[in-house]
Automatic annotation (TrEMBL):
Protein name: Sulfite dehydrogenase (Cytochrome) subunit SorA apoprotein
Key words of the record: Metal-binding, Molybdenum, Oxidoreductase
Oxidoreductase molybdopterin-binding domain: residues covered: 86-255
Cofactor(s) this protein cannot do without: Mo-molybdopterin
Organism whose genome encodes this protein: Cellulophaga algicola (strain DSM 14237 / IC166 / ACAM 630)
Signal peptide feature range: none
Moybdenum cofactor oxidoreductase dimerisation domain ranges (all copies): 287-405
SUPFAM superfamilies: E set domains, Oxidoreductase molybdopterin-binding domain
Amino acid sequence: MERRKFITRSSLATLTGILGIDIVFGNLLPEAYIPLAIQETDPFKLFNLDKDMLVLNDKPWNIEAQAHVLDDKVTPNSAMFIRNNGKIPEHIDFENWTLTLEGESVTTKKIFTLSELKSKFKHYTYQLTLECGGNGRSEFNPPAKGNQWTIGAVSSAKWTGIRLKDVLAEVGLKPNAVYIGYHAADTHLSGDPSKEPISRGVPLEKALQEETILAFKMNGEDIPLTHGYPLRLIAGGYPASASGKWLNRISVRNIVHDGEKMTGSSYKVPKNPVAPGTTVKEEDMRIIESMPVKSLVTYPKSGATLSINKQLTIRGHAWAGELNVSKVEYSIDFGSTWSSCALEKEVNRFAWQHFSAQIQFPQKGYYEVWAKATDSDGLSQPMLVPGWNPKGYLNNACHRIAVKVV
Ligand SMILES: Nc1nc2c(c(=O)[nH]1)N[C@H]1C(S)=C(S)[C@@H](COP(=O)(O)O)O[C@H]1N2
Ligand SMILES: [Mo]
């Protein structure tokens, strides 16, 4: 009789990590057997999602929040949008996971194990806002190809990890270093192992900021598999595509990183405004860096019915890429007049800020509450969809909710 092959210790740990609970008798699991709970195809169970999350795509998974799901000051795992360009890596051996630092502008190429990274460098926790560059794409006309995000491809969770700058100091940078690029363990949808689904990066100045971290925890727990377990680059304030999940290699470059989705028109917008539908040449585009000012009304839920006898307290969050938000205003008369909201300071740089306001409606009827944030450079959100661009990025138009006052 053939000897039964038992599952290895590290893959058992991965399965336990995915399930979030101990597998009793896990040592008796046959090697190629996938527990039923992981074969689950219902994304709400698979990712433990809030019931009001919206699934845009299943292959790959792309899932967004609705505004009211994002009401918490710190985004819980269940409300975090999911954006995958390729296939989630299936076999994560976290005990043998390594991060390689290499590239033409690194002084010494080095390979670190996860435990080396965790023990060698100091840990920091920051709340960091990550918004997909394509959030709001569904409103552009003519429409842009890609995920038709409405408003929910944004999150602001607490991330714990080590500073990328500390790791870069350890390996040393050559004077010609200008950019870092990430590489990760997810695989291309075509199944071609020579292709990467995405390999983006950030300019060296961004890589050296204190808040740019290599994270291994999200909201105090191991990062959920779909959000990049066991290691993720986090660059708050930049389009979330710069924050590489399942990170296994960082390349220090002497040129702007030219990995997958750094070239062509990916994550780029025209340098100058163009008429809707224009074809724009690559040299007339710029790479998106700091995201524009934006806000969301997270309470009440759009469509709420309220009593005329009571004041309504609205609340939400505002963020402005690498800048601060200096004010948030609301309007109940379709943008004719604006009143100011109370605005809290950010808990740290690149975390979103909370606002609230008390509204007394003048009479019964239908209203819309519009919110408008202004950044520390004085730029405000547009009331309508801003500059059209070929890929439908950076729609930071005012968020609007409907309310019925009875
Ligand atoms: N390795 C890897 N990193 C990635 C991606 C990916 O597909 N693979 N998607 C990027 C994009 S486009 C976005 S918007 C964010 C989404 O992060 P989330 O799914 O944790 O919300 O991850 C970024 N990092
Ligand atoms: Mo994205």
